[in-house]
Amino acid sequence: MRPMAPPVLTLKNIHLSFGGKNLLEGAEITLSEGERLCLVGRNGSGKSTLFKIAAGLIEPDTGERFIQPGKTVRYLSQETHIQGFETTLSCVESELGPGDDPYRARYLLEILGLDGSEDPSRLSGGEARRCALARTLAPQPDILLLDEPTNHLDLPAIEWLEDELKSMRCAMIMISHDRQFMENLSNTTIWLNMAITQRLNDGFGAFEAWRDKILEEQQRERALFDKKIAIESAWLAQGVQGRRKRNQRRLKDLFAMREQKRNARKVTGLVTMATAKSETSGKLVSEAAGISKSFGANPVVENFTIRIVRGDRVGLVGPNGAGKTTLLKMLTGELQPDEGSVRLGTNLEMVTLDQKRESLDPEDTLKDALTGGHGDTISVNGEPRHVIGYMKDFLFSPEQAGTALKALSGGERGRVMLARALAKRSNLLILDEPTNDLDLETLDLLQEVLADYSGTILLISHDRNFLDSCVTSVIAWEGDGRWQEYVGGYSDMIDQRRREGVLADTSAQKNRKRETPARKKPVTSHGAAAKLKLNFKEKHALKTLPGVMEALQSKIESLHKTMADPMLYSRDPETFENAASQLLRAETELSLAEEQWLELEMKREEIEA
User: Fold this and answer.
1) Where would I find the beta strands (DSSP E) of 178-265?
2) Strand arrangement, sheet containing 298-309
3) d(CA 371, CA 353)
């Protein structure tokens, strides 16, 4: 267990009500020096409200807030408020204090893709988010409160942010839907559930097992309590014998238990999701042959070829502005390429979930958004269903039917978009950042729904865990309009890139040896010492190549088994050709890896001798 440092921020016995609803009932947070705490809970449970209380922006009905004297607090909210400044640089510099580094503002803007001269009122949502993040981090505060800091950030920016936060010495509390982000950074977890908080002195990686254990225990306690009420109710049905004090007390206890059960907070249910079924599409979904697209002098897609068949789950990854949405639109026929061709399959029924929620009218009520403003029913899987029942599947109460969408939280609007998309018949789902603002339980169920989906999925996401869980291949941006497909999820892509980088170095070294004649150099004692030494890259290769070779050998054995089927070529020539191509590539890579390992091992033995 970590030694407890003095608290720099304390929230004690916080109570807050909104519109007669008790949002917080005794919530507590203690944040120590250097502690990295993640706050988790359902959308609408009050996490952002508790953050605003910690930041001093909202006064609770009752409770205490303590900040250690002299400590500075910076708060990044979900909503960005950066208007009123001439440039992004002046916006970020506005938060700097007398002792802060004036160059840090420009550094943060540059690393986040802004040059400081932009007009804040003209920024896109993602650019405004990055400017707000730079403004929050620039002063290097003592306490950081980060509400969904990864929203609108691409994967390189998220990975940079993780490294930046790890290097900072401040205490921090974070809210995020990005599991890997919280696992990589947190060392304490606070669970806000049913208006109260529970503390786990461990990071988010241990949270879900701990939470499930608590929920199981609560379920057992409720079952025992219900059983006790049933026993006492049966006794009451037999009649109270006489008016003895013992029986009167027992009767009062029964009434008290019934009242306790009526007043007890119910555990929030799970979102119920299911995709509407459609007719099966043809085997081919989309085939792109040498497609290219440029905007002015900037190539967005350059000579890209891919074949997507029924049942594929393809993720697109790359930095903001790389052209993920442009490539997606070309693959679905919405946008024509400048060069090359795209052939779509037959019988496609496509449903799109856009990341900006632009198809939602903020003035619409929740009921009208789901029904299209027509009556009280919604067509789900081709069958009429009452909108109130469908709302409950997505954790909306009947009282919210008349609520305007603008009054909903970001996570609730995300559930509205999911509810609308999943009600429509489809065999091709297009998901553009579907995880934005969704709570962890909803994300879990969305992953299960997509796993059971019988059609084809094309999705854009910056959520590494979500990509690993949902996709069978990844199309990754390689720079200058080049895109490459990798088999597997995001982690598999990273491993393949790393392995190919090692092998590419080997191939380049061999080519240089063939092309450059050996030249003798005068040998000095310093030169000899330098020659007989493994550099960092060689040490790393010597350590990792055995694992690379083992993985390649396993892949080769698997491909040999696949091709050993004598009927494979006649039954499925495409699979046979694909396996043969993979086998040739794997055997070549194994040969190169073995040769590099042998050279490095001989060099190591020479040095040790």
Assistant:
1) 188-193, 196-200
2) 298-309, 284-295, 339-344
3) 17
The pLDDT value given to residue 340: 95
Q: What is the pLDDT of residue 234?
A: 64
Answer with the one of 462, 487, 512 that is the final residue of a domain. 487
CATH number where 39 lies? 3.40.50.300
Domain boundary among 163, 180, 209: 209
Q: Which residues of 393-413 are buried (b: 16+ CB within 10 A; e: fewer)?
A: bbbbeeebbeeebeebebbbb
- CATH number of residue 548's parent domain: 1.10.287.380
Same domain (yes/no): 152, 93: yes
DSSP strands (E only) in 194-312 = 196-200, 284-295, 298-309
Calculate the alpha carbon distances from 335 to 208, 229, 331, 339 in Å: 42, 64, 8, 12
pLDDT at res. 507: 41
Q: Which domain holds residue 369?
A: 284-487
Structure letter (DSSP) for residue 486: E
- Which residue has better confidence, 33 or 45? 33
Q: Into how many domains does the chain fold? A: 4
pLDDT tens figures, 379-428: 876 778 888 888 887 778 888 888 888 887 777 777 888 888 878 888 89
